[in-house]
Amino acid sequence: MTSANDDLKALVRTIPDFPKPGIQFRDLTTLLLDAGGFRATIERLVDSVETKVDLVAAIDARGFAIGGAMAEKMGAGLLLIRKDGKLPGATIAEDYALEYGTDRLAMHVDAIAAGSNVVLVDDLIATGGTARAAARLVARAGGHLVGARFIIDLPDLGGSAALRRVGVEAISLMEFPGS
């Protein structure tokens, strides 16, 4: 799917040495600022989901903008997967590894009706730790994860491959080499 999206890839700005030397930061805010590019991004992500979904599970925080637009187009609900401590009421949570330590994602314990079809969405996949934690949350809550969608994949960091190894279809609109 990635070569078909060179028009969108051209709208992504690369910022060298951010947040630290040696990193090539892929800034998709320039893509989101472009009305036509944003619209095409949402349409192409939606078109890549072949199964009827009940929920779009969006990962904190840029995933919310993408997931909200996708959910509206798909006639689905929007499930917010947040950093732990940000949701009121009863939640379930999953830890995931960071470069220096761990973090935790949470969702409402009653957010998914058993057997609901869910697609997971975020702006970018790097190592895949966040996406794998979100996938575990969906499974624990009784949802059926039909796949994961991302605007950008950094395949050298292995996140999409890690999702595929645990049985999750991972599709991205574009890839960038390196970190």
Automatic annotation (TrEMBL):
Its main location: cytoplasm. One of its GO terms (molecular function) is adenine phosphoribosyltransferase activity. GO terms for biological process: adenine salvage; AMP salvage; purine ribonucleoside salvage. It catalyses: AMP + diphosphate = 5-phospho-alpha-D-ribose 1-diphosphate + adenine. Pathway: Purine metabolism; AMP biosynthesis via salvage pathway; AMP from adenine: step 1/1. It is found in: Cytoplasm. Pfam families: Pribosyltran (PF00156). Residues 41-150 form the Phosphoribosyltransferase domain. Signal peptide: none annotated. Its EC number is 2.4.2.7. GO terms for cellular component: cytoplasm. It is an enzyme of class 2 (transferase). Keywords: Cytoplasm, Glycosyltransferase, Purine salvage, Transferase. Belongs to the purine/pyrimidine phosphoribosyltransferase family. Homodimer. NCBIfam families: apt, PRK02304.1-3, PRK02304.1-5. Catalyzes a salvage reaction resulting in the formation of AMP, that is energically less costly than de novo synthesis. This is Adenine phosphoribosyltransferase. It comes from Sphingomicrobium lutaoense. The lineage of its organism: Bacteria, Pseudomonadati, Pseudomonadota, Alphaproteobacteria, Sphingomonadales. The gene is apt.
